[in-house]
Amino acid sequence: MSNPADELDPGTLRPDRTGQAEAFDAIGERYDEAFPHKEGQVAAAEWLVGALPAGCRALDLGCGTGLPTAGQLAAAGVEVVGVDLSDGMVTLARDHVPDGMFHRADIADLRPGGPLDLGRFDAVTAFFSLLMLPRAEIPVALRTIRHLLVPRGLLALSMVEADVDDFEIPFLGNSIRVSGYLRDELREVVEAAGFEILDESSYSYAPAAADIQPEVQIFLRCRRHA
């Protein structure tokens, strides 16, 4: 019997990212200024570095400026590929992490049979990137990540804990749409997509920007089921 996590219907991914990429183009370097301390993100990437074999490949999904994650992985000798919706962010990532390979792409482009085939990866990081999707797309995005990973490959994932779906918020002088889950529901969605959750941590975070509310960040360390 086939695993439902292997069944990806491209027709279920009809992304509407109107305004999302443009907002991050405008934000640029101010993103890292607004989130200057990323302890949870750094720790999750350190876990990957310690668990990955030499010469491995990692995909940084929603790489942003390339800092800290792509730079952290590249410095450890990992072959890093990054993707982001924002041309401006991809340009910054290329400047910050010259050893990485970066593409302007949507996760829908990476699905089986999609227009961008990046091969398979030993690990994927998705730090606050899936929260940019409507909830209806998040399970399909997770199954796309599963497809991109080798069997038993690793996923480091973070989301903001919030019971919202495609909700518009002000963000660094711009407007973006975000989704989130309460932690038990997030775990259910991740496990249903074919992942074993190895560890969970959370952080209360107060961004250094007046128009961003304090938030609870959830980090999951996961392994793809074989």
Structure, briefly:
The chain is an alpha/beta fold and 226 residues long. 28% of the residues lie in helices and 31% in strands.
Strand and helix order: HHHEHEHEEHEEEHEE
Oligomer: single chain
Mean pLDDT: 91
How big is the Rg? 16 Å
* Uncertain segments: 1-8
How would you describe this protein?
By secondary structure, the protein is of the alpha/beta class. 28% of the residues lie in helices and 31% in strands. It contains seven helices and nine strands; from the N terminus they run αααβαβαββαβββαββ. The protein has helices at 20-27, 30-34, 39-51, 69-75, 87-96, 138-148, 183-192; strands spanning 57-61, 79-84, 101-104, 121-127, 149-160, 164-171, 174-180, 195-205, 215-224. The chain has a seven-stranded mixed β-sheet with strand order 3-2-1-4-5-9-8, sandwiched between helices. A two-stranded antiparallel sheet has the order 6-7. The longest helix has 13 residues, at 39-51. The protein is globular and about 40 Å long. The protein starts with 19 loop residues before the first helix and ends with a strand. Mean pLDDT is 91; it is low at 1-8.
